[in-house]
Amino acid sequence: MMSAQYFLHFAVMGILLPYFNLYCYHLGFSGFQIGLLSSIKSTAMVLFPLLWGGLADRFQMRRALYIGCNFLSAGIWIFFIFTTDFRAMLLITIFHAVFYSPIIAFLEAFTMDLLKKEKNSYGSIRAWGSISFILAVSLTGKFIDMRTIEIIVMLTFFGSFSAALVSTQIPRVVLVSPKMDFSSNARQILKKRTLVFLTSGFLMLVSHGTYYGFYSIHLEKLGFPSSFIGLTWAMASTAEIFVMLRSKSILKTFSIEKILFFSFLTAVFRWMILFWAQSGVIILISQITHAATYGTFHIAGIIFMDSQVPEGAKTLGQAVNNAVTYGFGLTVGLLLNGYFFEILGASGMFLISAGFALAGTITWIIFQMMGKSGILADHPT
User: Fold this and answer.
1) Which site in 49, 60, 64, 154 is 20 to 30 Å from 222, CA atoms measured?
2) C-alpha span between 91 and 287 (Å, rounded)
3) Would you say 134 and 14 are in contact if contact means Cβ atoms under 8 Å apart?
4) Which residue segment(s) compose the domain that 239 sits in?
């Protein structure tokens, strides 16, 4: 059942991530307007997962909120079908993001709880999301070439509504210690180790702003068709699936700290390649590095965060992880790209992205050095 949840959630993302900004570009929106719409979705990932996650843990109502957010986000999306006005789309984006943004944090928390001692098997379940992403991004690219870019609005609604229906089948999870003090548990998120990880993760996602905001537009401006754009996104997810299916052996062989370091460093090289590459072959091959910049980074980050947070604040812990990285980090990245896209173009922004990834790598290296010396040791409070 968890595999089906991931499958449908990431099928919707396979339509939205590569093509929604491209859809807005075809509507005539400026780079700043596109960046603003994208940043609103990311800003919502900072605020609302924390709100909904806190409520879910405090009142033990995670399942009800998860189902409600799925249905409300699907219902609000309908309004995109009836307008192409920027101000109206801005308003719809805000309301949609309120309920859509916490869904993935809830899903990650459910999965960690259900896996119990088998958390290293997380990747094999999460891989279904990557499989659906590949199918969605590839098929949508072909549909766009055959018809028009406007088809993504209707496809997103059908995918979202299907995910909402399946969300009603989410298993009930009973906490081992339901009466644990929520405030004390929540404060554990502020441990030094966790804060350093969140800082590096924030910089990592800032570096992804160009990729998630303007990669598809960049390829179209280089002269590539939508089918090729979809193929490159599919290549990235294929590499990601390989890592996720092998995650159990990877996590047994390497420490979480080493996996995260490798992920940060790979991002530096990935964005440097996209800074200068104009060859379709090189761009396609470079997408293999998504296995590290997203695949291993995401798996290691989810498990690292779960290990740092006590039982009574698991939903909030994953919400904080998503909020700081995919929320705040990506928001900053998208806003920077929205502002500078018209000036520097996507190529120039990929060079800046490499700089942010390098900053995240250096932060993590310093953390390792200080950790060995005992400077970052957490003391009981």
Assistant:
1) 154
2) 34
3) yes
4) 2-169+181-373
